[in-house]
Design goal:
The chain is built from ten helices and no strands. With 175 residues, it is mostly helical. The protein has a domain of 106 residues: lambda repressor-like DNA-binding domains (434 Repressor (Amino-terminal Domain), Orthogonal Bundle), CATH 1.10.260. It starts with a helix and ends in a 12-residue tail after the last helix.
């Protein structure tokens, strides 16, 4: 049996030491632990190269994108433009340089970021290639589609506008 094999490798003392018991700390101990953690994080970040920082930032963005795409709810603060802005900021380069990197005009990039224009599919492909396949094109595409779906479901004016072009509706009966 698997459990017996596992137990035979370790002594009961080893197994007991492997279990972590919750420990309640005093306010002073919590404060000290928080200071130690903050100091360790500062030291780690100080020793990190610029490439490592950028890589972690891009990875964080990827995880945020994944979480948002999987979430059914639409969030107006999480649009293609906002994620693109975050991506460019993660690179720590000027927008002009980024626009040149993906062969688009800086004004067009600005329109995407400020949501004056929805990006065509080729932008998702270029972003995937630019990120060295770290962020797949389908993430960017799904982000755009989620935004378009929300707009379509909530835009009552477009239905009024388009209704005039439909001359006859089909009749349906369901029993």
């Amino acid at each position: 049996m698997k459990t017996k094999k596992h137990n035979s490798k370790y002594t009961p003392e080893d197994l007991a030491e492997a279990i972590v018991f919750p420990v309640s700390l005093s306010k002073m101990q919590k404060k000290t632990a928080a200071k130690q953690l903050a100091e360790a994080r500062r030291k780690t970040q100080k020793d990190m190269s610029e490439v490592e920082r950028m890589s972690l930032s891009i990875l964080q963005l990827k995880f945020q994108l994944e979480d948002y795409i999987q979430n059914k709810m639409f969030d107006a603060d999480k649009t293609f433009g906002s994620f693109l802005k975050q991506y460019v900021e993660s690179l720590n380069i000027k927008r002009k340089q980024f626009a040149e990197d993906i062969s688009i005009d800086e004004a067009l990039l600005s329109q995407f970021i400020n949501e004056h224009r929805m990006p065509p599919d080729y932008i998702a492909i270029r972003l995937e290639i630019h990120s060295n396949n770290s962020i797949p094109a389908n993430y960017w595409f799904k982000l755009v589609e989620k935004q378009r779906e929300h707009e379509l479901n909530n835009d009552k004016e477009i239905r009024k506008k388009e209704k005039r072009f439909v001359h006859r509706k089909i009749l349906l009966r369901f029993s």
